[in-house]
Please model this.
Amino acid sequence: MIELRSLTKNFEDKKVLRGINSVFEGGKCNLIIGRSGSGKTVLMKCIVGLLTPTTGNVFYDERDFCVMTKRERTLLRREMGMIFQSAALFDSLTVLENVMFPLDMFSDQSYKERTRRAKYCLERVGLLDALSKSPGEISGGMQKRVAIARAIALEPKYLFCDEPNSGLDPKTSLVIDELIYSITQETGTTTIMNTHDMNSVLGIGDHILYLHEGEKEWEGTKDEVLGSTNERLSDFIFASDFLKKVKAAGAKS
Amino acid sequence: MFILTFLRTLGRYLQLMGRTFSRPERWRMFLRSYLQEMAQLGVDSIGIVLLISFFIGAVICIQIKLNIQSAWMPLWVSGYVTREIMLLEFSSSIMCLILAGKVGSNIASELGTMRTSQQIDALEIMGVNSASYLILPKIAGLVTMIPLLVIFSTVSGFIGAYATAYVAHIITPSDLTAGLQHDFTQWFFWMGVIKSLFFAFIISSVSAFFGYTVEGGSVEVGKASTNAVVSSSMLILFSDLFLTQLLS
Model:
């Protein structure tokens, strides 16, 4: 479980996050949604420690990340996995080496065991046939899947996904969503995902946090989101004509 | 304002070096990267070092023979001057200036691209000390390889000088040999090696600093690469002045 308490982040005079409070539970897909510039990425970076919050705290299972020593943070980070928007695979390594990297770095297993684990993770994301390819040789969707395999290699307690569907076609986006969802369910990971993708919101949003101009505007589940009376949320969710028609059809029936 | 910017940059550089010179998390991974960097930064530079040194050695020999040597000077002076220039300045300082261009831009652009494509963030999230993991093998690799490059450069310069003797017949091989052997001071060789170690550290650490601290996109990576080459070249020139005075 990850808990945010009164989290704020300022860049000089600009207030980007304003007193965010929320609880992200384990075994659930927690989605952070909002328009571009609403503070989603900054919030994610504050949670994982790439940015230091101006005020407030981030608790990882009651452990306050903001007051930890460097050593404690390093140890906690080994419980995290992250999937970046750009996949952030290491160019100089092959697909297998990318997935083996966290194992090589932190696991005391033998080479054979590490390889077996990496291959299992790649099998889990359906990429066992791309072991020896370099990241530049595979598609964007495959890169995201490799990033997922790398993120789960050390069996993290906390999984962070920064817009994992961006730049992908709807079909591939669904595959990525399903993967993240099933991994979360199987391992009980606390998953936090930044997204713009409405399919993700309606498909895997166990818990949804809607940000507007750095503030928490709405919080709920995927079942509550369609019936919400929050105007800003409705504007955001039903921004496309297609979804407006779906909503209208739903209202008629 | 300039002083403040300089001090701020120096402080950030020292902080980064503080993070860089920490014990590697996995010696196995460090050794693998160290060997890779030795190959990428050192072995891959041998070709250009040999080529440039060969021609410079030949040109120095020709210039001294045709323009400086007179009836008042001994016949071995061309070989002697070629040896002293190669040992004292060219193979250490000028070669490192050339390497600052090749190796420095390589390091800065590689780390800059890793920064902009979030690969460094990915390392940090995993709990890896990215500065130590990425920069330390580069510094260690280049510092290890530079004495070899200095030796190759010197030898290649001498071969170039011999080419003017054997191929162009500008000087007799015996006069050249006599000059190369005349009044040899072994310390000059070590001076070149010691200077090159400092220059290797400057090239690798300064370029790594500019690459690692890139903010923005591809334009900034290009700027960082240029800044890395310019700054490390300037620092090499300044430190050459002090080191030459100190070691002579």
About this structure: Residues 30-247 of chain B form one domain. The CA atoms of residues 122 and 128 of chain B lie 9 Å apart. Chain B touches chain A through 17 residues (CB under 8 Å). Chain B is about 85% helix and 0% strand.
